[in-house]
Design brief:
mainly alpha, about 65% helix
């Protein structure tokens, strides 16, 4: 089991929706890890504009939010 699998398992058992970081913090976290929007979009299987939207204040929902 990888670290990510362990985190996914913990989140799957959570009863409450976990609040997301503020939009500005989302961008800062991505940039601190030296990950581009394109790289993150590829891993999450979403479009690059979707990542931009999340970093501009739009919240993901549904299955994409779980990622």
């Amino acid at each position: 089991m990888t670290d990510f699998d362990a985190i996914d398992a913990l989140l799957a058992g959570a009863k409450e929706e976990v609040p997301l970081p503020a939009a500005e913090e989302r961008r800062a976290l991505r940039e601190a890890l030296n990950v581009s929007r394109v790289q993150l979009a590829t891993v999450l299987k979403v479009s690059t504009p979707t990542i931009g939207g999340w970093e501009s204040g739009r919240d993901p929902s549904g299955e994409v939010r779980e990622k």
